[in-house]
Amino acid sequence: MEQDKIRIKLKSYDYKLLDQSVKQIVETVKRTGSSVKGPIPLPTSRRRWVVLRSPHKFDQSREHFEIREFKRMLDIVKITPQTIESLMEISLPAGVDIEVKMRG
User: Fold this and answer.
1) Count of domains in the chain?
2) Tell me: the pLDDT tens digits for 85-98?
């Protein structure tokens, strides 16, 4: 059962962990004989919050918080059955979210 392309999207709050996971996936795919397009860095989403430090007085004193979500995308072409099996056996770190789509 061969597919034309597999698209993998990875998300993480830690870019080092994300790059390590991408490297692991790329090495696994190349070892099975398939080719990889990417990793393509996607835009980083930033969420920011401003909170008052004191609830009653000193309105000018505020704290700023930010969370950054880093994203990468991989396209795997010329897929073999060994590629699919090896991708299913990879164990990624807990801080990485992965989304896999198969396209025909």
Assistant:
1) 1
2) 898 888 888 999 99
Q: What is the pLDDT of residues 12-59, one digit of tens each?
A: 999 999 999 999 999 999 998 888 998 999 999 999 999 888 888 777
User: 18 Cβ partners below 8 Å, 6+ apart?
Assistant: 10, 11, 12, 70, 72, 96
Residue 57 in any domain: the answer is no
Residue 56 lies in a domain: no
The pair of three-digit structure tokens given for residue 6, joined into one six-digit string: 């597999």
Note the pLDDT of residue 19.
93
Burial class of 54 by CB neighbour count within 10 A (0 to 12, 13 to 18, 19+): exposed
Query: What's the CATH number where 39 sits?
Result: 3.30.70.600
- Cα angle 18, 8, 77 (rounded to 5 degrees) comes to 125
